[in-house]
């Protein structure tokens, strides 16, 4: 087994026996690892009180290849994030971030970028205003995650032909001009490509132009403070992600059954 010292964030904790824990972690440079923390619940353990969800950790461990169970040797807390578990919305949003990272992290790979956006999400959720910004923070996180996975949807031009994809006014819709959108086709579409996609059997819906612009801004780092916009952008990013990952994460079930354009 190789010994590593890595920054890490806990993705999952599972009790093991009476006093031990199995933790699944996202490390900065070695991707996800699974470690046995022997005696973690004993006060005298080398890592008592260090294995809390959301905290920034530095761990020394011996790894096994693949998904094998390594063993934790030493752990210190670099930064505690004590406020997240104290409020339900921040807590749920943080769990959503952990779950998504768990789904996409690649064993043995340098996941510094994924680590960074997860750490930023958790850091922001731990702030006093984190609770009220949860949708905006998740929207930004998911937009960046989509981009890193090479999945970010077309939000301005047409996903199919690369041309302009103008929005048009839908009658009786208060949310302004809409544009055709299809997760299967890669995002926003022009009218001609939307028609072709429908004829090819793909699901095509419409989304407000303002929400798509909001998703684009979230990718640029903006945290939407407008609650309605933040929730809408988060929902688009989440559904698009679920569609392309081919799974429905537990923390995304609020969006199902989906009425999303697909
Ligand atoms: Zn087109």
What would you note in describing this structure?
With 262 residues, the chain is α+β, with helices and mostly antiparallel strands. It has 2 domains: 2-132, OB fold (Dihydrolipoamide Acetyltransferase, E2P); 147-262, no CATH class. 32% of the residues lie in helices and 23% in strands. It contains 6 helices and 8 strands, in the order βββββαααββαβαα. The protein has helices at residues 88-104, 112-125, 134-148, 191-199, 209-219, 227-245, and strands at 2-16, 20-27, 31-37, 56-63, 69-79, 178-182, 187-188, 205-208. The strands form 2 sheets. The chain has a 5-stranded mixed β-barrel with strand order 1-2-3-5-4. The chain has a 3-stranded antiparallel β-sheet with strand order 7-6-8. Strand 4 and strand 5 form a beta hairpin. Helix 3 packs parallel to helix 6 (227-245). It is elongated. The termini are far apart. Mean pLDDT is 91; it is low at 257-262. It binds zinc ion. Zinc ion (ZN) binds next to helix 4.
Q: What share of residues is helical?
A: 25-40%
CATH topology of the largest domain: OB fold (Dihydrolipoamide Acetyltransferase, E2P)
Average pLDDT figure: 91
Order of strands in the sheet with most strands: 1-2-3-5-4
Number of domains: 2
Biggest sheet overview: 5 strands, mixed, barrel
**Helix/strand structural class:** alpha+beta
How many strand segments?
A: 8
CATH architectural group of the largest domain: Beta Barrel
Count of DSSP-assigned helices = 6
Sketch the topology as an H/E string, one letter per element: EEEEEHHHEEHEHH
Percent of sequence in beta strands: 15-25%
**Which molecules are bound besides the chains?**
zinc ion
- Shape field: elongated
Kindly report the name of the CATH homologous superfamily of the largest domain. Answer: Nucleic acid-binding proteins
| CATH domain class name of the largest domain | Mainly Beta
Radius of gyration: 21 Å
Through-space gap between termini: 45 Å
Low-pLDDT segments, ≥5 res:
257-262
């Amino acid at each position: 087994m190789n010994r590593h010292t890595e920054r890490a964030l806990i993705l999952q904790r599972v009790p093991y026996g009476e006093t031990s824990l199995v933790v699944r972690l996202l490390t900065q440079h070695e991707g996800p690892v699974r470690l046995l923390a022997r005696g973690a619940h004993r006060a005298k353990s080398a890592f008592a009180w260090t294995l809390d969800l959301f905290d920034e950790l530095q761990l020394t461990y011996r790894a096994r290849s693949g998904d094998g169970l390594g063993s934790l040797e030493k752990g210190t807390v670099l930064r505690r994030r004590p406020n997240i578990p104290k409020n339900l919305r921040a807590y749920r949003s943080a769990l959503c971030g952990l779950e998504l990272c768990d789904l996409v992290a690649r064993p043995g790979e340098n996941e510094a970028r994924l680590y960074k956006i997860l750490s930023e999400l958790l850091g922001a959720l731990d702030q006093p205003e984190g609770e009220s910004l949860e949708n905006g923070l998740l929207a930004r996180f998911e937009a960046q995650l989509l981009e890193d996975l090479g999945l970010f949807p077309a939000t301005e031009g047409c996903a199919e032909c690369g041309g302009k994809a103008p929005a048009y006014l839908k009658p009786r819709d208060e949310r302004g001009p809409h544009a055709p959108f299809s997760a299967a086709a890669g995002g926003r579409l022009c009218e001609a490509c939307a028609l072709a996609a429908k004829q090819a059997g793909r699901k095509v819906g419409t989304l407000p132009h303002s929400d798509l612009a909001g998703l684009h801004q979230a990718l640029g780092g903006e945290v939407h403070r407008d609650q309605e916009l933040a929730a809408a952008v988060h929902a688009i990013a989440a559904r698009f992600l679920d569609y392309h990952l081919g799974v429905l994460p537990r923390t995304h079930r609020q969006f199902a059954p989906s009425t999303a354009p697909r």
